[in-house]
Amino acid sequence: MSQTRRTSGILLLVLCVAALCALPWLLPPGQLVAAVQMLIAALFACAFNLLAGQGGMLSFGHAAYFGVGTFATIHAMNALGGAGLLPTPLMPLAGGVAGLLFGLVAGWFATMRAGVYFSMITLALAELLHALAPHLKGVFGGEAGLSAMRMPAWGFTFGSDVEVYFLVLAWVVVSLAALYGLTRTPLGRLTLGLRENAHRLRYLGYRPHTLKTMVFALSAMFAGIAGGLQALNIEAGNYVLFEVKLSTDAVLFAYIGGVNAFLGPVLGASILTFLSQTLADITRSWLLYQGILFVLVMLFVPDGLVGLVQRAAKSLRERGLASWLPRAAVSVAAGLLLTCATVFSVEMLQRMFARDYRSLLAMNPDAGWPPIPLFGHDWAPLAPSTWLIPLALFAVGLAACRWALALWRDDAEAAPVLEAAK
């Protein structure tokens, strides 16, 4: 059985890579740029997960190593011009080396403490770099930042989005393969030991501080490679890369996708990057939706979306399609109803409290509250009928949710009986 599952996993990975290779011919040019960002975010999230998910060291300042990798690659692009020993396709190596060296220094100090103290040290280091970057104009270009150009190499001009996409894809696939191989090495097993019980490793003769520093540096190296890919992608960088938002993005990517699965951060990074690219053009409240998703995952699916998919697949194998499909249909329907109610309420409230709407209301106070256009219809914000719609959706969605929970609970209680019958 395990051999069959391993073969299925390999086949699925091959199909995923083949699908990624076909994306340039399936997506419009604008969406291809978003796909490049998704790939870079996936590598950055997996680099973070090496430290947080596998090593048990939650970093709040991983943007520092991403940014260092970006600026190191920009300097290499300007100095070498994409020729010599480091042509354009190999430029992310400069970001990886810079991330590794900076990670060794920062990791040596940060890993002297554990838990929340470690997290605060990583945050302080990143914020220190963020504060210094605008003043170090020779290194980071000041507030204007630095820019560079991709130069032709190996017969490619790298002037089109398609060539940049395949370059980034190649680096991401190779880096993820290296990260996965690292988990299978003795160091990778010791990394799990650091997460579970560092004191036991000390009793076995290992030096936890040295191991933590090595894992920290390797995580920073892959984050630097992701930063180098970002430099090749946008050909510029400024001190905004060191902001805490990028560090929190890595945390969100990893934990929403699932830190206990190797490809969990890839799923989280892909979904959230796609949502940010799509929803940012549709609504001003997209960050709120991202926060709601994170809270729901932490409350109800602590092992992430990958854990949810794994449990659904396990239930499907055990119960069969005829028994599993009605439960899944009720669960999806409940989720869609609650989502519609939430989106309607958030968008109405956002428009009601928007500055433009409040100004319009102040200009004509006697005219009352003007209708709000939403989803192709004008809604009266103070009319009871307007708010009955989300209330009804919430009520039906919660009822469907309780029904789905009852169905899954009955399924779980029946499982031991079925196992005994077998």
Q: Mind explaining what this structure looks like?
A:
The protein has 422 residues and is an all-alpha fold. 75% of the residues lie in helices and 2% in strands. It has 17 helices and four strands. The protein has helices at residues 2-26, 29-54, 63-80, 92-110, 116-132, 137-140, 161-183, 186-196, 198-203, 208-234, 244-257, 264-279, 286-300, 304-319, 321-352, 355-363, 384-421, and strands spanning 146-147, 236-237, 372-374, 377-379. The strands form two sheets. It has a two-stranded antiparallel sheet with strand order 1-2. The chain has a two-stranded antiparallel sheet with strand order 3-4. Helix 2 (29-54) runs parallel beside helix 7. It is a multi-pass membrane protein. This is Branched-chain amino acid ABC transporter permease.
Q: What key attributes describe this structure?
A:
422 residues; 4 strands; disordered C terminus; mainly alpha; two-stranded antiparallel sheet; single chain
Helix content: over 70%
Radius of gyration: 25 Å
Largest sheet: 2 strands, antiparallel
- State the strand order across the main sheet: 1-2
Number of strands: 4
Beta-strand residue fraction: under 5%
Cα shape: globular
> What structural class do the secondary elements suggest?
mainly alpha
Task: Indicate the multimeric state.
Answer: single chain
Low-confidence stretches: 413-422
Give the H and E element order. Answer: HHHHHHEHHHHEHHHHHHEEH
Question: How far from one another are the termini?
Answer: 17 Å
Number of helices: 17
Q: Let me know the average pLDDT.
A: 83
